[in-house]
Fold each of these.
Amino acid sequence: MTFQDIFKSSFLENVSSVSLVDMALALFLAFGLGLFIFFVYKKTFTGVMYSSSFGVTLIAMTMITTVVILAVTSNVVLSLGMVGALSIVRFRTAIKEPLDIAFLFWSLTAGITLAAGMIILAVAGSILIGIMLLLFVNKKSYLNPYIVVISCSDSKSEQAARQFLEQQVRRCVIKSKSARKGAVELNAEIRMRGDNTDFINALADMEGIHSAVLVSYQGEYMG
């Protein structure tokens, strides 16, 4: 038995099952789409702390998925084994931002469609998804709810702060109130009339007001 007889099974045949041109083209397009996904993620990030490693992960995820699907589509038997091998993989990293899940699925979908030969679908779909995210995620609406945290010295300053706030915003609802000796803290949900936040500065300058903080629900601080 020679060395060639040992590997005479489908191993040597699988080497030429996918041409080098197809592999190079698929990986090059996957890298390009991965960069585009990374660019859109960077432009639409709205979280508290930006993670550059997650952006690089999106590029790697697109290319890795392309390699996996190329291997699966070249051999039916290999595809069954790949399903069994990947079923034992467990990922325990928590996804903190809901939008990050969309980017992960976008990378996976781009890699799958590229490796399946649907290049036009992968490119056109990615462009449309990117434009949609750039338009809607970056759109800042002053009608979104905000929380105002006001620290007062007594009930008199509390009433003055509430009256001033109700005059400056479209809607104001007190969500919580905590009081201790010499200090009162209010948490109010508001809808602003516009994108001007100067009323927070005026509120903080009022007599008896220790501090005033405007906080959005997405973890963004304004003032």
Note: The beta strands are 146-152, 169-180, 183-192, 209-216, 221-222.
Amino acid sequence: MSGERSLNVIIEDAKRRMNKSLGVFESELTRLRTGRASTSLVDHIKVDYFGTTTPLSQLATISVPETRAILIQPWDVSAVSDIEKAIMQSELGINPTNDGKVIRISIPILTEERRRELVKHIGKLAEEYRISIRQVRKDTNNEIKQAEKDQKVPEDEVKRNLTKIQGLTDDFINKINEALNIKEKEIMEF
């Protein structure tokens, strides 16, 4: 019975690790510029605020008043130039404008070529996370087989758990594929 409990812990750990990989993949997708404004494009940007690196989301209200515009309203007006500098230094490649009180970011329409590059990039990114999920499966399968070798778990229990891990792997890879398909459609929209 203690072997079964240990297998449950192994399975739950695998599920947690796969879920974490999926979450990181989805988070990376939200940060990609698709030609549409989204607060997730900028909320992770770090700003040097009085010598402390601070996430933008902790310094300002970020809103999307239009489909191709982001409005950043700092709580402390003295931070406007620091925020603007951080946005210009970010990987977004966007130049903000500021009127001394708020910062506006216009999101340009992506060219067809850039859209195709982004789709190719996220395809590669998705494959990296599929590999990550498969690695969790491999590690978990090895742990389960080791438990059998150590005479802690009967063979039928091992087979049942290996099947369970394969099902989890398939589910998480399908979730990655679904997120990828949604993002591809979003990028290719005009």
Note: DSSP finds four helices and six strands in the chain.
